[in-house]
Specification:
The chain has helices at about 5-30, 115-120, and strands spanning about 35-40, 45, 50, 55-65, 65-75, 80-85, 85, 95-105, 105, 135-145, 150-160, 165-175. With about 180 residues, it is α+β, with helices and mostly antiparallel strands. The chain has two domains: about 1-30; about 30-175, no CATH class. The N and C termini lie far apart (about 80 Å).
């Protein structure tokens, strides 16, 4: 009898540790995408000349095989995929004039709340001011102050841990080449 109880504890500990190890292995291999709906305030163009007309798009940032991609989808246009480049720190010649405000991107790994939870605040504040929201990923859109420079930067930032963030740049243009 005295030997059975410690054996149960050892078995329970082994099972728990193998479940935790399996969860960590799954987390390491699964790459979640981040998404939201965006309203482009103006027409934008990819570097190869494809146009994204002013209006609403379903936007998704995904890491296909570790390669960052920004995907625009809408019912009235073909899907547009833009490849990104991970960056470290702020570059000297970076666009600084915001075109749109900071956009929260939801991880596809997070559960979607009910309609009431998504559209109504618990505190009465606008959703972007909710302190309960976990800002894991954001997207910002900038242009150059110099009107001759037509490049537009979409800066995706993902929180890794604590105050550590990873940045990825996606480039569009404000006019066709």
């Amino acid at each position: 009898m005295k030997c059975v109880r410690p054996l149960r504890l050892v078995l329970a500990a082994l099972i728990a540790s193998s479940v935790l190890a399996a969860d960590k292995a799954v987390d390491a291999t699964v790459q979640h995408a981040f998404e939201n709906v965006i309203r482009l305030p103006r027409d934008l163009y990819t570097r190869d000349g494809h146009s994204l007309r002013q209006g609403s798009y379903r936007l998704r940032v995904q890491f296909d095989g570790g390669r960052p991609e920004l995907v625009f989808e809408s019912s009235h246009e073909a899907k547009t995929v833009i490849e990104g480049k991970r960056t470290h720190g702020i570059q000297e010649d970076t666009p600084a004039i915001p075109i749109a405000g900071t956009m929260f991107l939801r991880s596809t790994g997070d559960p979607v709340g009910t309609d009431v939870e998504r559209h109504h605040s618990k505190t009465g504040h606008p959703q972007y001011q909710e302190t309960e929201r976990d800002w894991k990923a954001t997207l910002r859109m900038y242009r150059y102050a110099d009107a001759d420079k037509k490049d537009v930067l979409l800066l995706f930032q993902r929180r890794l841990s604590g105050v550590n963030w990873e940045s990825t740049e996606f480039w569009l243009r404000s006019e066709k080449r």
